[in-house]
Amino acid sequence: RPVSEADAYVAQKFCDNRIVSSKYTVWNFLPKNLFEQFRRIANFYFLIIFLVQVIVDTPTSPVTSGLPLFFVITVTAIKQGYEDWLRHRADNEVNKSNVFVIENAKQVQKESEKIKVGDIVEVKADETFPCDLIFLASSSTDGTCYVTTASLDGESNFKTHYAVRDTTVLCTDEAIDSLTATIECEQPQPDLYKFVGRIIMYRSNQEPVARLVLQLSLKATVCTTLKYVWQSNPFNDEPWYNEKTKKERETFKVLRMFTDFLSFMVLFNFIIPVSMYVTVEMQKFLGSFFISWDKEMYDEEIKEGALVNTSDLNEELGQVEFVFTDKTGTLTENSMEFIECCIDGHKYKDCISEVDGFSQTDGPLKYYGKSREELFLRALCLCHTVRIKQADQVDGLIGHPECKNTYISSSPDEIALVKGAEKYQLLHTLNFDPVRRRMSVIVRTTTGKLLLFCKGADSSIFPRVQQEEIQQTKVHVDRNAMDGYRTLCVAFKELTQKEYDRIDRQLNEAKMALQDREEKMAKVFEDTEADMHLIGATAVEDRLQEQSAETIEALHAAGMKVWVLTGDKMETAKSTCYACRLFQTSTELLELTARVVGEMLAGFELNYAAPLVKDESWTLSQEYGLIIDGSTLSLILNPSQDSSSSHYKSIFLQICLKCTAVLCCRMAPLQKAQIVRMVKNTKGSPITLSIGDGANDVSMILEAHVGIGIKGKEGRQAARNSDYAVPKFKHLRKLLLAHGHLYYVRIAHLVQYFFYKNLCFILPQFLYQFFCGFSQQPLYDAAYLTMYNICFTSLPILAYSLLEQHINIDTLTSDPQLYIRKEICSFTGRRMLLKCSSGRQFLSWCRWINAPKAKSSFRNMRAENSALTVTSTLPQKALCKRRWSSSALLAYFSPSLVA
Amino acid sequence: MAVNYSAKEEADGHPAGGGPGGGAAAGGGGAVKTRKPDNTAFKQQRLPAWQPILTAGTVLPAFFIIGLIFIPIGIGIFVTSNNIREYEIDYTGIEPSSPCNKCLNVSWDSTPPCTCTINFTLEHSFESNVFMYYGLSNFYQNHRRYVKSRDDSQLNGDNSSLLNPSKECEPYRTNEDKPIAPCGAIANSMFNDTLELYHVENDTRTAIPLIKKGIAWWTDKNVKFRNPTGDGNNLTALFQGTTKPVNWPKPVYMLDSEPDNNGFINEDFIVWMRTAALPTFRKLYRLIERKSNLQPTLQAGKYSLDITYNYPVHSFDGRKRMILSTISWMGGKNPFLGIAYITVGSICFFLGVVLLIIHHKYGNRNTSADIPN
Lengths: 899, 373
Fold this sequence. Notes:
The structure holds two protein chains of two kinds. Chain A is α/β, with parallel strands linked by helices.
């Protein structure tokens, strides 16, 4: 029962605990929404047109452009209002949730939004924190609590937090109520795990006691991230109108020409109608439903299907050229399975095939009574019973608690061991952190011996143990890594009382330090964890997700380049890549790792760049894969070395782009984003897609054009920040190959048809100007000009662009080649446009010649032309449509009735 | 037509209704709201659909059928159009030899008006009713400012608009502080030549009766155009307080002697007010009705056209024409439609033949169908 508090002694204005993620209120909705909408360049353009029509004497009445604009603005406002209402509802859900607050020594139930700074909040097990809290006391006497930050960074493992030492005793409501204290703390930081503050307690006029507090700063971070997500919405500033005409307009000085120009602009602005905008939006919005409705992307396990957060990117799914994927949890299941361990060079296997799993390990223990094995198991047990849910930060490390828990309880011997472990007294924990990549405990045995157990990644353990012990274990570790297992090494060291006293003192000093606490702690840890004895290593397997290999193959066949960005160590990642067929056996691997980093800068250019970049034929003969690790990458990307580094960057990029598969291991989250950005900004700006499941992937998900989150085990952070969320990696296949392809083709047809029909519509009007003395006389009636795009011709194309399947979905999914072929025939290409426009020019000319000759009166001609336009554009679409379905037919008939 | 029917609907769409999937969905809908997507044909994009596949078997007959239908239609239309008699004289008088050359530069209000006579010969007789048109060229009746320079409510007989015409009429809105009726540039520029047709036989001129009523649209005459209302039927009194358009010799209530063809409902005026779409246009002027079934309306022979030349077109390089024409069921003479039909039909037929030859010669070589893409 962790109890926490945030107390403000000084009367200072604090905001309440309400979360506002919504943009509007009832009162400011109209002005704010209008302002937001007219900030969009397209709307502003139409507004200008409308104003021109109001002010200047123009051929058409203001209604013709005002009505569609009004329509667009209203529809968008309704849509945004609805979305904001949903946000309000979500906010309310959080704001109205009940929390228990201790007031006057009593528990009072409050709504979460009413928590004030200074309230003492009681949080029960498995509840979420309603706000940022300072940990004062918990139900356990030692003042610890275990917190999962899954909702913040997606890590579902438990992190231990300690209560402020002086308040740990205040376990009851009454006791805690007597507390008077002030907390000074820093502003919220982007780093979740840092919090520096000070609590000053006033006890019956005694000297205030100053204590440093280490706690999480929770909610502020959430808000900033969300804010960032909204700000980075690419939808808001998308230029799409012809800027040149506006500039040209300004260059005209003569008023007459100016107004003439305006008039012509008004007359011909129907080529880019407001309604195209609406229809495209509608198509995207409605189209995204088909993705979330897709039964094949429903996962029985988590009982969820695909989730669409942004509907603006449907067509980009069909143009992806680069796929950046995380490994753990994305390609793999992220559920660990113990495979084997090696103790002092001897291998013990635990696999399902053997009847009595771990007992094999126990065997030697019993029979030979080897102290090493006992020590090994003891180390594992200690590390793990004492620090129950201590965990792995980066993919590269194991120590996943669940899996060990299971085998401990499954073996009676182990339980005995655990019980035995209780006899140990825990003195210090040297916490895990991703930089050290290891953790240690210092315990005192019943016999009074002081022991330090350390476990961590092999690369961090090996340098700290006596070298002669490494050899045999290293063989096993390397082989395990080759097999794609995650490895973990265990080491120990005996401490004398003197050593321990020194360490104890240093640690306490470091913990109390105000400045550079992190650095000081790290230094003490560094000193302590040295000269240890290696005991053994474990190997844990992270299984591949079902069909991830097939999916990767399909993506490859679809011409996409798949990059794996992982925090894992190289060997593990490499073997996973082989397993999921990212690398074929024929793929020639280029390795750029820290191992070769010494000669790299010198040999980089010679070894790789020269033969690869310059020789054009290399891609044809051989598939290349590149492996690079984080440290090398930072050498290349961060030009700290010398001026030539930027040169390396471009060479590196060139090599990367030529490789079919790239594996980046040992990556920090920010480096992932860096890589994505690098590829995104290359020439031709290819469409990039990032897929990941954990908080460490969020940065790259946000960076890429299309971000896809896996609704996996590592929390919801990735899914929430993504554009699309799918339950499994395999769903990417259908999402890209079928949905992406279809929507790309559909939107291409939609836009193209819009230009077609409006050229058909406006070209006669243009030609007519030659016959009416360039007086901007409109050929069509105002009502017809207005309704043409809104009523007469909008529904068929909308239905078409939602339902068209030029190729069967099954064919699309099973034949990835089609994904590339679509790009070759390029619907938006210039040739296609030329072809179509020549067709419609012919049509307009025909109509023109056909235009009833000299005797026809003006209104006659108008009417005839109007009818002709509708009747000639509708069948065009009908002819193009490859798939007829009943609902489309309905949409086809409706405008004919209207017309 | 080859049709590719999606059989998938049957394969996994229907069984789900009775199968476990359907049961689960039904149960979910009731008690616990499951997020499982509905397995409906619409949501899973499995709506039945057909896709026309173009094969020789469908394309060839289509071409032939189009060709065989279009060519006769085209020929029919073309023949009909060619059977229409049409005769046209330009009486602008640009050429010095023209009888009307003397009137070329007279002003519109000269008294007495300049008159001229043009003799012409009809080679063929005009059998059915003949329509007499006047035609103007290079006259931009479709100019934007011109088109809107009218007040429809004034023309509709609205009394307030009569005395206070719309601003669109500027600068032909008022004259000497009096509102102009009918206001606007269109009305002001009304065509006012008088054309008279005589049949010349052995030097005797017989006037051909020209009917001036029935040349305007019924809706225009009865709905859109109305004289102002008031006490009595005296148009002079009803138009009290207004003045004539600047370029008119007479006020609007003196356009005709017959009361049902005077004022705003004068048919010549209505015809003029219906603006033309192109700068070269013709407007119906008079009707010549067929007297009896025995005689053609206009026999072949000599005719003379008396013109009271009032309307100046020389200043803007315009032309004036007089057109005599008969009509058919498809309107006036317009060979384009027939030619278009014949052309399209011929092309289709020709393509059909070519494709048939190609299909016959090479058709069996490639039997495997390409992916329809």
